[in-house]
DNA sequence: CCGGATCCCAACCGATACTG
DNA sequence: CAGTATCGGTTGGGATCCGG
């Protein structure tokens, strides 16, 4: 039965213009401050960075640590549970890379995996 | 470097309100006619079914076989290349199922993995 | 420094009607 | 049967400004 397909559940968590790249940063850099994420992702607005992080936090993928001080300091990191996503992200990344090659073979290399 | 993250490439192909369930149908049923897909997905409109299938076809995941006859007959199936997505979809499905359980533990079972 | 609130636009999606 | 055309609603995301 179609209801048994939970691919969409996995997608929910990853879908969002900035989520994959945010996760990539946190996975590779470890703990990062809000401003460090901003620096790493120059084109994202504060609003988007906040909302994307909040959704990841809701799903227990990202942990938000608030330091009560002036000026404020907030650090983000991958949760222990979030670490369990690593193999999946790795698999998606590898599949994505090979798919880009495949598209180049199909349609030629003059395009860069645009759809 | 962030540009090496191709998770988004994999997402591009799966994102779309009906793509996962369409793939689920084709993977489990094999070849299906347009009308059979419509029957299996009662809430999808022809327009959406067509457009989602076209995008999957562009990415060489789905094959479209047209029979020139009256009335028309068109069959859709997973391409040989598309078959290589099976392990990834399987992994995403399993991760999704376990994540639903995890959310239930976190927030209680009164909600069904809604965000 | 780390956001929230508001407004706005573009892309996505649905309903309906029409066609080879 | 298997689509296309058109229109209109909804939602995700960006720009800007305000606040603790």
List the helices and strands and how they pair.
The structure is a homodimer of 115-residue chains.
Chain A: H1 7-14, H2 19-29, E1 32-33, H3 34-40, H4 46-58, E2 62-67, E3 73-78, H5 80-83, H6 86-107
Antiparallel strand pairs in A: 1-3, 2-3
Chain B binds a DNA duplex (20 and 20 nucleotides) through residues 16-17, 33-35, 38, 45-51, 66, 70-74.
Domain HTH hxlR-type (chains A, B): 5-104
GO molecular function, one term (chains A, B): DNA binding
Keywords (chains A, B): DNA-binding, Transcription, Transcription regulation
What do you see in this structure?
Chain A is an alpha+beta fold and 115 residues long. Chain A has a domain of 76 residues: Winged helix-like DNA-binding domain superfamily/Winged helix DNA-binding domain (Arc Repressor Mutant, subunit A, Orthogonal Bundle), CATH 1.10.10.10. The longest helix of chain A has 22 residues. Chain A starts with 6 loop residues before the first helix and ends in an 8-residue tail after the last helix. In chain A, 25% of the residues are buried. The mean pLDDT of chain A is 92. The interface between A and B is large, with 42 and 42 residues. The structure holds a DNA duplex (20 and 20 nucleotides).
Outline of the structure:
The structure is a homodimer of 115-residue chains. Chain A is of the alpha+beta class and 115 residues long. Chain A is built from six helices and three strands.
Q: Tally of extended strands of chain A?
A: 3
The overall pLDDT average of chain A reads: 92
Give the end-to-end Cα distance of chain A, rounded to a whole number of Å. Answer: 31 Å
Strands ordered across the widest β-sheet of chain A: 1-3-2
Order of helices and strands of chain A: HHEHHEEHH
Number of helices of chain A: 6
Measured by DSSP, the beta-strand proportion of chain A falls in 5-15%
CATH architecture of the domain at 6-81 in chain A: Orthogonal Bundle
Structural shape of chain A: globular
Radius of gyration of chain A: 17 Å
- Uncertain runs of chain A with pLDDT below 50, 5 residues or more? none
Structural class of chain A: alpha+beta
Quaternary: homodimer
Range of helix content of chain A: 55-70%
CATH topology of the domain at 6-81 in chain A: Arc Repressor Mutant, subunit A
Query: CATH class of the domain at 6-81 in chain A, anyone?
Result: Mainly Alpha
Report the sheet with the most strands of chain A, covering strand number, pairing sense and barrel closure. 3 strands, antiparallel
What is the CATH H-level superfamily of the domain at 6-81 in chain A?
Winged helix-like DNA-binding domain superfamily/Winged helix DNA-binding domain
Biggest interface, CB < 8 A: A-B, 42 and 42 residues
Domain HTH hxlR-type (chains A, B): 5-104
InterPro entries (chains A, B): HTH_HxlR, WH-like_DNA-bd_sf, WH_DNA-bd_sf
GO molecular function (chains A, B): DNA binding
Pfam family, one (chains A, B): HxlR
